[in-house]
């Protein structure tokens, strides 16, 4: 089985935090110890505590013609809040109306945070929030607030940090009890409705909290206030120095380096072999049975990592998987206007008219279904994907502990392709062709099943991750051998089509979520912009995507916008005294913590991405602006010096940023030629065909007054190169480093050789 070494930071430089997180199930998070004198409560953090199959009895939306209950969430746009709009619980959205009600009634707040494709959020809704008994307990003694963590990551961060600090773990649904002034009192994640296995049920918990509020309120409130004060100190570090000590960046990235078997993820059940894309994570150590959600942030990061795998190895297995992910997004996740949707649910109805949803129902197969659909090719397909009459979720005791998938199969590839082709007496090409035909037939059958819920929010930060992957794919995939043929679900589209999708997504954000006057973003869009302002991640991830869009052939307008957004980011989030970026503007009094995030988890941290953005921008512009970018990046990294020294595995992308900034001089590839020239595209492909994370690609059309004006203002050296190498018959490439440039070359093969030295 092939493997890739992430040594000396190759793949880690492209958001590989996603891969490492997936590999290790969960990375260590910063452990903040907050000690409080609080009353003793029964408490449990449960990840997958009971079988959910028996409780997920969700009514079909088509059957709810006249709902019995309607609460304030019915007026919201968030798919997650709308899912709870007809609970008997008297839910409020996060806002002053709810806070004022709690103060007026002098009762605690119950805060429930989740997202629309969260499996255990659905379970808790069915078990507790649809229960009249539970609703009465909540309505009588609490003000209940629902928050979509994807719309308000700032609110989620405050109370998730509290739960993780106090109890050592967290997750969604996040269930926290607050005082009317929003201080946390206690919390957890999923709670079953009734006491079981010595653990308290949610109904018991509600009664205990009410009793404590009535009898021990002062102790509760003091402990909550103290917890927030301690968290505020712990999560807003400042720099002790202006930059990292010499040698630390190399030490950190070496310690953080891991061996990732990307092929193992692609072969496993967390990869949707029939429809493309990846599920959120595997519940076992075999990469087999996944948690079936599909999240946009996973797709963007994984596509980027597989693109890197292809550049480094030239193995088309990696380019196939990158295409697989991006073609899934193009088919299922892109709005007509260009924005890219957030997620698909893990749960769906098994058939039309079913009374309840089941996890994975859309994706799993019985042996008989495979036989019926595939006919003469069924045996070949079943052997290739480990399909069994009894079901195949038996590779690990962790795969299906509650036997929810008995008799069902999650497709997984366990044998080498060439060995399987030989066994059936077929060429590898013919064998792949048969598998592709089989997958297409299953895909067509699957389309007739009830689809999982689609969360059609467009989130700026997650779109930024995918814009990056789409833009890079448009040039990197041009290095595939001309004879390469792919089978379904890959579409075999021309790579250049991907940058069109990227530009359309970027344009959607600029048109719908950006104020041209204030230069500020909004966080998300669904039937209009969200009420929440943008956060650090929105700026950082979008800037990264725009830089990739420009470097891979996009117009100068994308680079201009990236620089403009960086200025706004610095204005809103940069701690100019202490260094690094806060995750919020700090203007909302209901958000009690202003955090400097460093953890590269399921999503990279805004600070890690920002550090890399600043290094890249410093290589594009010149003079004082370049120095300012570098100084900001160095001070940012110095804030997290202790983290890089002691727990570098928790900050893999920040390790990459530290490694990048330690390089004395980045390589600049400057391409001079007409935008309309086909040769410019070839030269761009050559510039991106050699892996080098410490390389910047600049392209300039010397006949464009707009571009020449930009470079005269931001880097006169580039403008001068364009003037000296202006030639209407060809495109000229120069490779510059350490203040010197190579002699110009004018064909793509010469540029590739130059970059390969």
Automatic annotation (TrEMBL):
Matches recorded under SUPFAM superfamilies: Six-hairpin glycosidases, Thioredoxin-like
Domain of life according to the entry: Eukaryota
Domain called Spermatogenesis-associated protein 20-like TRX: residue spans: 70-231
Protein name: Spermatogenesis-associated protein 20-like TRX domain-containing protein
